[in-house]
Amino acid sequence: xxxxxxxxxxxxxxxxxxxxxxxxxxxxxxxxxxxxxxxxxxxxxxxxxxxxxxxxxxxxxxxxxxxxxxxxxxxxxxxxxxxxxxxxxxxxxxxxxxxxxxxxxxxxxxxxxxxxxxxxxxxxxxxxxxxxxxxxxxxxxxxxxxxxxxxxxxxxxxxxxxxxxxxxxxxxxxxxxxxxxxxxxxxxxxxxxxxxxxxxxxxxxxxxxxxxxxxxxxxxxxxxxxxxxxxxxxxxxxxxxxxxxxxxxxxxxxxxxxxxxxxxxxxxxxxxxxxxxxxxxxxxxxxxxxxxxxxxxxxxxxxxxxxxxxxxxxxxxxxxxxxxxxxxxxxxxxxxxxxxxxxxxxxxxxxxxxxxxxxxxxxxxxxxxxxxxxxxxxxxxxxxxxxxxxxxxxxxxxxxxxxxxxxxxxxxxxxxxxxxxxxxxxxxxxxxxxxxxxxxxxxxxxxxxxxxxxxxxxxxxxxxxxxxxxxxxxxxxxxxxxxxxxxxxxxxxxxxxxxxxx
Length: 502
Fold this sequence. Notes:
Elements: H1 19-28, E1 43-47, E2 68-72, H2 84-95, H3 100-106, H4 113-122, H5 130-142, H6 148-167, H7 172-184, H8 193-203, H9 207-220, H10 235-246, H11 250-262, H12 269-298, H13 307-333, H14 340-354, H15 357-369, H16 376-388, H17 392-399, H18 407-424, H19 427-439, H20 446-463, H21 467-478, E3 486-491, E4 496-501
Helix pairs in contact: 1-2, 4-5, 6-7, 6-8, 7-9, 8-9, 8-10, 10-11, 10-12, 11-12, 12-13, 12-14, 13-14, 14-15, 15-16, 16-17, 16-18, 18-19, 18-20, 19-20, 19-21, 20-21
């Protein structure tokens, strides 16, 4: 396969208008040597700054690229094998007195596959009419004379033309016109040419150009083909959004899809899912940043967030969630039932990242109704979030699944429930969960038990209520999870200390 991303520059091919000069250029040039075996022919092209002009002598639009440089990796010493017919064909095509198909049809049997490839190369060089190369290729395709090498050669020439149009700051319409011309002559590479153009804009730093190109492609309704459906990059819009995500510009990817839809254009359905993934990633980045900030605040390195900043963060999260819901509605409006499960999966991930327990629980059931069962770990994560927010109704519904699971799964679920209560500071509920686990013959992890006892002790110092603490200590002692306890009680009214053994 000819390399398409790294387009090298080539030595000039010195063709002239006269047949004898053309022959002399091929025979005498030390910088261009034809390889005898066409299977090893590998030609890559790049174009210098170019422009587009119209030729009145043709019924179809012609394009003249002002400069083309070619290089080749071919080596052979049999330059003299070029036939007279080859040079005659080039001269006749140069005159443009007849259609290229008529000229080539007349010389069809006399031109070799290698010579036909070189005709393509000739008309892609400096000052030649690029449309003629496309017409030659179209004729080759109709005559079933396009082999793998010829296809790769034409694709590399086309990529070079597009690259130079971009580098030359040409109008977006000219780039799209070239793709239309490519499709008209039946040039269909094994990759998406639209994706290739987007990548060329991106690599050139023309990100606004990439956006404008995608809008123009959608506006004209140019058919999009992608053989690699497994990646699901969603067509032009989705592919550009994916490129933005790769660079970490998650919110830009979301805004791109929404902006294109608001412009009255119609992005591909998969582009909405890609944008929803970007929302998830952005919410996840916010959550990670908040965890780091809280860690620094706990260590005394930074001040804790004040009310104003907390509200700003919540507003930002709410804005992202609104984007996600809006995108999910777009997918549902497209009436693609096969994607509903994926939509609710994305919404579930959003609500989990934002710490919205009740909304996340609803998406779990929506996924189930759409025929996409969530993983058991996701149920546990949502359970922990609901526990931290003490959402009793959601907790009760989520725990119903536990009744039909094995002991290992039950322990894992109750551990998540316990940690959720601990995180939310609901230590009474946490203590009840520990005792429920003990009743079921399940032993909580040491760190979980210690966290509950520590939390209860702090509460005793503030409120003086110790019944739950004493009961938990006794239950843990009976289960041999802690040693015997001595509890010191001070009754201020009677100035009396009481020591109790558990």
